[in-house]
Amino acid sequence: xxxxxxxxxxxxxxxxxxxxxxxxxxxxxxxxxxxxxxxxxxxxxxxxxxxxxxxxxxxxxxxxxxxxxxxxxxxxxxxxxxxxxxxxxxxxxxxxxxxxxxxxxxxxxxxxxxxxxxxxxxxxxxxxxxxxxxxxxxxxxxxxxxxxxxxxxxxxxxxxxxxxxxxxxxxxxxxxxxxxxxxxxxxxxxxxxxxxxxxxxxxxxxxxxxxxxxxxxxxxxxxxxxxxxxxxxxxxxxxxxxxxxxxxxxxxxxxxxxxxxxxxxxxxxxxxxxxxxxxxxxxxxxxxxxxxxxxxxxxxxxxxxxxxxxxxxxxxx
Length: 317
Description:
Layout: E1 11-16, E2 19-24, E3 29-35, E4 38-39, E5 57-58, E6 64-66, E7 69-72, E8 75-78, E9 88-90, E10 100-104, E11 108-115, E12 125-134, E13 137-146, E14 152-154, E15 157-158, E16 161-162, E17 173-175, E18 178-184, E19 191-196, H1 202-205, E20 211-212, E21 219-225, E22 233-238, E23 244-249, E24 255-259, E25 276-281, E26 300-302, E27 307-316
Antiparallel strand pairs: 1-2, 2-3, 3-4, 5-15, 6-9, 7-8, 10-11, 11-12, 12-13, 13-27, 14-26, 16-25, 17-20, 17-22, 18-19, 18-21, 21-24, 22-23, 23-27, 24-25
């Protein structure tokens, strides 16, 4: 008799030096990432239905499609409302897909799944993601190929909840290299307007110089990222003890969503503010409705047979 498969799917363990990562096949989710035994992300149990989209791979769109509705190439489409409390289509179509293992070594693993044509997204797109551990941390690369005979809208990103260290989140210091923030409605998080972080509640949103989070609540997309000569953006969270975590990504992701994990029931919920979701994104929230906004939402369009890839990295400080 075979043993039951864990609720989060097949487990893939990677190791390199002081780093260890565990990838769950459901959603190609980063379930565990540790450095010398210290958690760099908020983990979850193998035999647990993944909570809060922790560590999942977002495709063929990250973030939200408002009301699940959009028009592409003259066709009006309605995606399933997977965020019913706000009536949005949230985080794409592969978060609950069972990714198959394509290849791997002791320190790397590639998993793949296919977005199948459906009423709200009538394109076939192959998505493969590679997790690779090295001396510089864990790098995830997502590659997408349009297998359809017509252009397809596409976006991607990750959803890890990173942990700076043992102190409470309010004591962590955040350095976020973004000059603009997307204002959203407080109830449904629907996009309103793009503002400079210096003009729109700078004490809350301007984190280009490292400052403690305190009681600040964030669930916002940022853009106009300050990068190094190689086009790399660097977000850092540090703990008063001196340790921390660093998330880096390239020009393929001109947006990043930052969420401090605030729960409506507050501290009574053990998941309340226990990590910061850092989500580099190839496009803005609701990018499938890019024509509705007066800023560049970054929607990708994959021509038939075209491929696209994006990468990001998580490392210990």
